[in-house]
């Protein structure tokens, strides 16, 4: 397929820094491959955060014979340059280990102990992902501004902030000195401190709307190279992981890939209208533009009903579970698949079981280290609320709503599981559906933010209303609405 004028503009641009806003389904991978093919004289580095995206790009580059294109995740690149192999690595800091090793003794036996440990963990993770390098009061100011912590956490930060900075230093020093396991973001931070020169003429940054501050800092330093940031500002949905939108953070030439090849123009215009309506509520000038193909993608009242295979997309795990149960006990038995794998949805695991046993006061059956630290189910619930821990909150809500029935539901679901190509129903949250596309999509009703919800938040007297979080709710809607090719049952907006 020949390049569009917009794609050709990207491929032929001579800007030293180029920012490309690429709408869902606009062929950005094809465009970047064409850029590499068009410039065989350049040594090009392609970077992305997601490993699956990198694997796909590597395969396509190999098929095209693009020997000038090197493909890495940012973590793989950092692992290579910052001696990641020399550390004992773990995937996640555990609150219970921080509680036992770092939280002051006066806190360990109190209700605040686990909250203190969680806050330490979150500050460490924030720092490792942030562009800033100093460990001082500025870190806490930046942390509060970015995360909008609850009153309980703000109180801890106010009263124990200096102490926490010292403990964060100790935690990171122990990682550096191999006295404790390091998380993968640690060697990424070491990569930032190393001020490494990357020997490439061009650096392509994919998914630029969801980069970390530390990744952006590393790329900005490579002033010898042409840098191209490609992403979709309206798909920024990972702020909870401390991601930043590079397209807003760097200065450079702006280009659009506004043509989607995924669905028809009618749906494209409908989605564009809704996105712009949402952003206008937030006081921004509507500027989102997306054009579709000359094809009939069904939506609204014309969307397919009861036609399979179908992808069901929810905003939240809890609503997705409720929807799964509706299909599980419906008249027709359907085969099921969960995008990314069923275990990743945490409908039933050791932590959920532990919370259930905690609620039933069967402490001897609890195996999860974190749950063991809570004195009661209400303590766990309070902790989930205080820390805005959405994953734990979902587990608490599942146990509250369904109790011991969860074991039976889990077994019934597992009996329906098949590989994705054989599934009649594919279940996913918006975050797991990102980067995917399906023929027929149904967005779960009453689970996505509407204009009315946004207006109510904006007009409320609450002091914790965040424009950034409301913007992310609009983006979540957009990502879900743009996954379908032939038919999309849109949620209300």
UniProtKB/TrEMBL annotation:
Residue span, UvrD-like helicase ATP-binding domain: 1-280
Claim: ATP-binding is one of the keywords in the record: yes
GO biological process: double-strand break repair via homologous recombination; replication fork processing
Residue positions binding ATP: 22-29
Top EC group: isomerase
Keywords tagged on the record: ATP-binding, Helicase, Hydrolase, Isomerase, Nucleotide-binding
EC code(s) of this entry: 5.6.2.4
GO molecular function, one term: DNA binding
Catalytic activity: Couples ATP hydrolysis with the unwinding of duplex DNA by translocating in the 3'-5' direction; ATP + H2O = ADP + phosphate + H(+)
One Pfam family from the record: UvrD-helicase
PANTHER family: F-BOX DNA HELICASE 1, UVRD / RECB / PCRA DNA HELICASE FAMILY MEMBER
Protein name per Swiss-Prot or TrEMBL: DNA 3'-5' helicase
């Amino acid at each position: 397929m020949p390049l569009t004028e917009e794609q050709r503009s990207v491929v032929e641009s001579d800007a030293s820094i180029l920012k490309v806003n690429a709408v869902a389904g606009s062929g950005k991978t094809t465009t970047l491959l064409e850029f590499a093919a068009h410039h065989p004289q350049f040594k090009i580095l392609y970077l992305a955060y997601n490993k699956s995206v990198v694997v796909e790009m590597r395969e396509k580059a190999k098929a095209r014979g693009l020997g000038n294109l090197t493909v890495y995740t940012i973590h793989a690149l950092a692992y290579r340059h910052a001696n990641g192999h020399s550390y004992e690595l773990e995937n996640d800091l555990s609150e219970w280990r921080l509680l036992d090793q770092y939280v002051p003794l006066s806190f360990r036996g109190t209700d605040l102990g686990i909250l203190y440990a969680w806050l330490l963990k979150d500050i460490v993770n924030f720092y490792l992902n942030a562009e800033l390098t100093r460990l001082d009061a500025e870190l806490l100011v930046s942390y509060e501004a970015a995360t909008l912590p609850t009153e309980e956490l703000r109180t801890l930060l106010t009263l124990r902030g200096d102490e926490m900075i010292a403990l964060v230093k100790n935690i990171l020093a122990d990682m550096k000195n191999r006295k404790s396991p390091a998380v993968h973001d640690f060697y990424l931070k070491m990569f930032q401190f190393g001020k490494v020169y990357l020997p490439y003429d061009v650096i392509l940054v994919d998914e630029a709307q969801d980069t970390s501050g530390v990744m952006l800092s590393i790329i900005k330093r490579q002033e010898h190279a042409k840098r191209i940031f490609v992403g979709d500002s309206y798909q920024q949905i990972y702020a909870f992981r401390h991601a930043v939108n590079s397209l807003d953070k760097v200065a450079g030439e702006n280009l659009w890939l506004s043509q989607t090849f995924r669905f028809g123009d009618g749906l494209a215009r409908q989605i564009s209208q809704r996105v712009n309506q949402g952003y206008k509520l937030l006081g921004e000038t509507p500027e989102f533009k997306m054009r579709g193909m000359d094809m009939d993608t069904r939506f609204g009242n014309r969307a397919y009903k009861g036609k399979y295979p179908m992808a069901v997309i929810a905003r939240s795990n809890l609503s997705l579970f409720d929807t799964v149960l509706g299909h599980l006990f419906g008249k027709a038995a359907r085969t099921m698949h969960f995008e990314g794998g069923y275990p990743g949805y945490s409908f039933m695991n050791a932590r959920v079981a532990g919370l259930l046993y905690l609620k039933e006061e069967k402490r001897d059956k609890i195996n999860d280290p974190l749950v063991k630290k809570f004195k009661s189910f209400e303590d766990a619930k309070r902790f989930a609320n205080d820390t805005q821990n959405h994953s734990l909150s979902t587990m608490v809500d599942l146990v509250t709503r369904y109790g011991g029935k969860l074991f039976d539901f889990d077994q019934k679901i597992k009996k329906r599981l098949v590989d994705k190509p054989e599934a009649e129903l594919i279940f996913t949250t918006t975050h797991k559906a990102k980067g995917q596309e399906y023929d027929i999509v149904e967005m779960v009703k009453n689970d996505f933010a509407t204009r009315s919800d946004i207006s109510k938040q904006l007009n409320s007297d609450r002091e914790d209303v965040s424009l950034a979080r409301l913007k992310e709710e609009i983006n979540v809607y957009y990502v879900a609405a743009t996954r379908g090719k032939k038919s999309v049952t849109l949620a209300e907006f």
